[in-house]
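Suppose you are handed only these lines of text.
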Amino acid sequence: MRTTLEGRIFDLLVIGGGITGAGVARDAAMRGLEVALVEKDDFASGTSSRSSQLIHGGIRYLEHGQLRMVRESVRERETLLRIAPHLVKPLEFTWPVYRRARVNRTKLRAALSVYNVLAGRYRLPSMYSADSVLEREPLLQRRELKGGASYTDATTDDSRLTLANILSAQAHNAVVLNHTEALRPISRDRDEWLVKVRDGPSEMVTDVRTRVVVNATGPWRLNLERRWPQHRLQRRGSKGVHIALPRERVGNRGAVTMISPEDGRVMFVLPGERLTIVGTTDTWTSEPPDEVRASPADSAYLLNAVDAYFPEARISEADVLSAWAGIRPLADWDPEKNPSDVSREHRITQNGAGMITVSGGKLTTYRAMAEQIVNQVELELGKKPSRCSTGDVELPGNDRAERISAVISADAALREAVCPELPYTMAELRYGVEHEMALTLSDLLMRRTRIAFELSDHGVRVAPQVAEAVAASARWSEYAKRAQVEAYIGEVARVFGAAERSHW
Ligand code: FAD
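From them, the structure of the protein bound to flavin-adenine dinucleotide can be written out as follows.
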């Protein structure tokens, strides 16, 4: 094991290193508990790197009367803007309104007024005429445009937000391990849980002893529980797909909120540096979370919306650079309902003997959710819940750019760009290995950077150079470098489907 888990009894073992588990580990460690966290793949490798990356109140939830959820989300948005200014940035959206739209201008004005009040901002929403909407977004469909509005939410990098929580937990003495899987069955011995965990790199299996377990495995959560028969394992949640398009092809200036022309759902066009990200779909799925991928039908649904809002772009499947999917681990499963109508609120369940399972939730509300879970953990440990301070202490990473510059000062060759199209440097990747617990090429290319999401070959072409550049820090032999590249090609196929081989 990279850090030993043996020979001690933890207060808490968190299983799963997505945003939920990372938030719980940070909170518990900051309260002084003895914490371990194991993640079978990499931190944020599940749903937490496949989100729309919005830290948002969820204006659409107002339609379903979920005021409590919206209030909590807007409060959390403000908290995260404060404690992670380097990771969470304000993002202004334009919401164009067309004739006969499901959400007309009156409804939109009312919704935005409530949204402002819930965020503690007592001001009228910014409503626009059709001409003003077109000044903001000149390439929007003009026909039947009645006007619109703008509002501000926030955006983040979901993998980095997760990693910041992991690094903070570690700084508060938690043992955090990626590529370490908790195995079934989890057994109980007197007042302790015994959890077998397998370390990926060495394949060694170790018993972890802990008083409380938090199952934060998101869409995998039923896998760990012995009581679920196979057919219940099919209840994963709702699948959400995004596609990346060249921004200059779509022509959007900023973020745009759209209503799907197919089923009236709220969707987004989101601006990246050189990309436009479009999402998302929302369909019930039984696909195993390790294998969930975007289908041609998913892409077609998203392209249809882009075509309706930005008709001059004449966008087609050939413009799609990259497409990926994630599973929302919803607390309720009801295929009779439209998944978009199912609440995103979380549920915390306890078995009465120190096993706590989390389902549902959002990236936005992870911190508040973690606070509730850790209160339960303390009660399980026979303590009164102590004060949670995660909303007062800045998340780490504010000095990352400076620290990467220092890597370049020490070795100028690392200034080299990983690929000419994107701003990432080899120094950043070396830093990922040395300071951010990256163990594989996919950790580096999918989550410490987002290269895999931003290139049509998903970074396969540059994988050998990257392996070479980090080999000394990662202690990879010639054989290990080749194995990493092979494994990366496999990972790309698993997450995105096969990369375009013509680019390799
Ligand atoms: P995950 O991130 O899936 O983490 C679970 C982890 O457990 C995984 O990393 C997995 O590898 C690990 N694991 C599984 N089994 C084991 C085991 N046996 N041992 C060890 N580890 C294990 N929310 C927002 O607030 N804003 C948004 O814009 C937004 N957009 C979204 C868009 C889409 C398409 C989707 C799908 C979701 C979106 N969400 C959004 C919701 C948000 O992304 C999720 O609620 C959140 O990421 C779930 O995190 P999690 O930690 O619970 O699950």
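What can we learn from it? DSSP finds 15 helices and 19 strands in the chain. Residues 478-496 form the longest helix (19 residues).
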